[in-house]
Every structure is written in C-alpha cells, then in structure tokens.
Amino acid sequence: MVVKADVLVEDVVASLDSANVNVIHTGGCLCGAINYSAGNLRPLWYCHCDQCRKMTGHHMAAVQVAYENITVRGEPKWYYVSDASAHGFCGDCGCQLFWRNDNNEYMSVTAGSIDDTSGLILKGHVFTSEKGGYYNIPKTDLQYSKFWDEDQS
Fold it and tell me: Are 29 and 93 in contact (CB under 8 A)?
C-alpha cells in the first residue's frame, strides 16, 4: 500500500536533497565514546517494523548515508537481528546509533543521534503494517506497508 500526500512530496524532497548535499552532520552517543561525521544524507524515514520498535521503544527515525560519506570514531557494538542486518550501538551508554544491511552500500544513522537536525524533514514511513497500535500515522504522510521502492529512497 502506498499513500501519497496532498502536498507535492517530490518538491519537498528535491529541495531537501539539494540542501543536504554539501552539509556535514555530526553526532554521537550520550557518553561521547562514539561520534561520527556524515555528508550527503538521504531523506529521513520512520521505520515501524517490529525490530526497530523493540530496539528503540517506538519507531526508528533514521537517514541513510553511503559508507564512503561517513567517518565513525570509536567502536560501536553490532547486534545482528538477521543474517545480514545489524544494529550499531554504544557498548558503554547503550545509545542506538546505526543500522546496516551487509548487502547495501549505505548505512542508516538514527536521527536522534545527530547534533543538528536542521534541514532534515520526514520523507515517509516504512513497515506501517507492523506499527504499534497505540499511535497513528498522519494520513497525508507517504506510507509503505513494507519497504519503499528503491527509486523512492
């Protein structure tokens, strides 16, 4: 199921994509043991899958970045939830920082770990078929019952 918003999502995303091209975002965990700098962030998505909800206590808010566009200082611990999918977190303070699939050329960075989230605007929601029953997603937001089409990323 794909729900399109009444606003022109493409116009918003195009302006965001061009706004974030040359911006370097920094972030890290609560205790400071792990920090990162990342450029060319892709649009923000909310993931409502069971794994992300259990990991974060709600839905995951994250942006994707190509591996060549991120530098991580410190050693995140990686917990594999499937053969190729892992969540990265700080082993000291427990902050959730990353998600990756070993078959992809990019990783996700949790929006809450970014120091300055100016310019990041929600593009849409994925895995809405698994969302929690205690909240609603605005009907005007772009939604996918599972994963988005690659050309929508």
Answer: yes
